[in-house]
């Protein structure tokens, strides 16, 4: 008898826990649900619906008209290409260069490496915003040889959005920590076989370091795709603007919320799909950045 | 193969090379680290040094005059604060304090003291920041850069509120997610979702949530109060704008710190909980005596990263309020960007950046000190 009561209490407490979890979940889901649903509605209906639960439901006059209008207002395809291009190139070069440096710090013995590594860790507390303006002046004076020949000043290009972000101290630190934990015998055995250091890096270390490459890639991806201040400063012409700067097109104009929601949905849904698909890796990356940082 | 023959082979294989193995290893090390180090030097260290350098000059983006070294004047212009007390004007004949028609005391104009008054050189150029009345006297808090001072106070308040609230809520979420329930990972995925979304998108979305006419928040509060709630233009009101930014910022980032708390929670050995159970500890006691001590380092770490992130408050401001209304949401980074980028006042923007860096540096040094103490 008492056992039965206890069982019922237990079941009630389980239901209570799920209720709490669900209510909190709704707080996180509803704004995003609202964004996607509103993007499908005409402005008048969107404003009317915001007074009821209809705001979160695909009801009424549903269409993709807002998307069509947003395409007319903003060169979305161009911006999306720019964002993806800049993100991928930075990511690929970044993974290579940072992991190579991590390998040098973790495996090789060379004079000065301990001091330099300590300095790198110290730079982690420099907020990017504090160097943005001097960095802008520096890239404005740097030379470049491209398709149009020799030119001074990097503004309004792809490389101004890419090159400053390839190397990052935190990425190097992540790779260093990971490589340090790999067994020493791997290196010794390969050295005896006559492998060069670079061969040890490419053939021994890289193939077994999937997790840390995934972590570094995800952190870089989020940082680059979501970047705002730097591309805002450096891309004055439309041809090099990424999607986040494109949000500015909707700042002042008499506010067409439907179009805004369509644009926001378009630039967010790819990231969300990517996240939901790889959510375990995403979350573990952040956890890793916490534990090791 | 005997030892001596092996030794001989090693020797012969070494001798024809220009460098010894050790030198080769060192060279390779430098060579492999060089690309990353050169990039970091160019795009992180040098700009950082430049920020310090500019903050001691009068550098502007485009200027007919050569750049000059101006010492600490950028900093004194930002940081000068003085109090100044005025007595009411006395009536010439009665020697009583003058009153205007509404019966209020009449004071001399503050501008007479702060504009080129040779008797008060220390007040020259200062502006009113705050003022208060005590008895007959009116005391002013004057600052040479009122907007900067407001930005400084705003960001300190923002950090002081966001750091504990966000860390606490994130811990609560982590404890909820740490329960052994079926499907719990779905909730973890949902709570974390805003973290992967750009702050630009979220700030834009929340502009609608906070809208004064059709905003979702007003609607929701209207329902909860059965229609008694009067709609508020959350971002258009100097009293509510900063709290609105704070709530949105916490909503966006709390999942990030939840995950870090979670990984801290999972390092606590379950044996400790079992031992506590056999001792008859209830859930609260388990938290107090097992969980919390096990989380101490995580707690310090989380506080420090929230603090560092919070001092950088910029994107939300740029998208939602641009510092307004009435400078109630000005922040250091927003001011640094405003001056350095939009007004092309490189030295002024750099001076703010340097101050921001010094604040962040001292906070993390304090954190270092605390972690060392407790270990």
Q: What's the helix and strand layout?
A:
The complex is a heterodimer of chains A (293) and B (375).
Chain A: H1 2-38, H2 43-49, H3 65-73, H4 76-106, H5 113-123, H6 128-141, E1 143-146, E2 149-152, H7 159-162, H8 169-180, H9 185-192, H10 197-205, H11 210-225, H12 229-234, H13 243-246, H14 257-277, H15 279-292
Antiparallel strand pairs in A: 1-2
Helix pairs in contact in A: 1-14, 3-14, 4-8, 4-11, 8-11, 11-15
Chain B: H1 3-14, H2 21-55, H3 73-79, E1 81-86, H4 111-114, E2 127-134, E3 137-143, H5 146-177, H6 184-192, H7 199-209, H8 216-224, H9 241-265, H10 270-278, H11 283-294, H12 296-311, H13 315-320, H14 332-342, H15 346-374
Antiparallel strand pairs in B: 1-3, 2-3
3D architecture notes:
The complex is a heterodimer of chains A (293) and B (375). Chain A is an all-alpha fold. In chain A, 69% of the residues lie in helices and 3% in strands. Chain A has helices at 2-38, 43-49, 65-73, 76-106, 113-123, 128-141, 159-162, 169-180, 185-192, 197-205, 210-225, 229-234, 243-246, 257-277, 279-292; strands spanning 143-146, 149-152. The model of chain A has no long low-confidence stretch (mean pLDDT 86). Chain B has two domains: 82-143, no CATH class; 147-374, Orthogonal Bundle (MetI-like fold). In chain B, 61% of the residues lie in helices and 6% in strands. Chain B has helices at residues 3-14, 21-55, 73-79, 111-114, 146-177, 184-192, 199-209, 216-224, 241-265, 270-278, 283-294, 296-311, 315-320, 332-342, 346-374; strands at residues 81-86, 127-134, 137-143. Chain B has a three-stranded antiparallel sheet with strand order 1-3-2, with helices on one face. The model of chain B is unreliable at 8-15 (pLDDT under 50). The interface between A and B is large, with 88 and 90 residues.
